[in-house]
Amino acid sequence: MSLAAERATDPSNPPGGSGRNLRLTALTKEFSTFTAVRSLDLEIPAGTFFALLGPSGCGKTTTLRMVAGLDLPTSGTIHLGDDEITYAKPYRRPVNTVFQNYALFPHLDIHENVAFGLRRRKVKDVDKQVQEMLELVELESQAKKKPPQMSGGQQQRVALARALINRPEVLLLDEPLGALDLKLRRGMQIEIKRIQTEVGLTFVHVTHDQEEAMTMADTIAVMNAGVIEQMGSPTELYENPRTTFVANFLGQSNLIPGTVSSADGDVVRVDMHGTQVSIPADRAHVTSGNGWVGIRPEKVLVAAEGEPLDAPGNHMSGGVVTDVSFVGVSTQYLVRMPWGQELMAFEQNTGRRAFLTAGTKVDVSWRPEFAFLLPASQDVNAGAIEEA
User: Quick check: 76 and 25 in contact, CB under 8 A?
Assistant: First the structure.
């Protein structure tokens, strides 16, 4: 029986303890010199994997700590279903937290680390529950080892098992993979998502790592300066950002100044340094005046001057390759355009053609449906400094 199914039939769970949404209403946290979280409204559906993504100091960890009961809000409320838990003691909330440093007991073996919370509450059949939890995180053969004998990824799975065995309604993960190296971190991203899907609990994951959030989360809220800039699925946020901060922080973007020429029906047309480009109306977040035409680097097509480009969009001539970076799966080009701006273009290394070299004169194009348009009033560099 899965953990989710066990929770539904377990009489030790509180009434209504299954399937309750987590709701934050006008949640604010002020410190003496700054406001960390500003009137945050957020509802997280039960059973989903939700990520709070943003740079250091954006308020994401403070939000998590308020949900955990480790910090009290200045104002606003926190509800789990119909129950308000704003001022409930941490141990009275059906919420558990997994921290970056694992917080395991080095003198106890893995079995006893996972069993610790149940033994304190004098729960029956502890050993059976621990065995099931170690099977879930695929560590049943490591039960007698102590934390110092295990790798970082294994210790992280022990920390997950210790939190999940308490059967929380909400599991909070505070930068849980930050201490791992890149290869191990990527493996653990898939592993944690597998565990969340299997147990069916609500996971709320705080991270500054864009790839981590996009790999694991069903929904991402991008935070900046205590507020949510945009919330949606990873695909929605990446393909159709609504602010320059989201466009720059979640991946990389070319943002090119332009002026709206017309906005008719499903298409907004923009004069971009003398070239008319088209933007789908549902991706145009300004319909008059000046704006930033946005296009992701991997959507930019580059070819030597005069060679055909496989795109129905407007071709822009007069570009010159100024930098070439080979990164294995792709080659990254910088192309200086006639108006002086350098555009990024990422091309997958399929071997279909030879690499372009610095100094090559090139034409540039992209498919209109991949572009987006943001208000010129937004800072073109917002979010770019914090890129990981």
Answer: yes
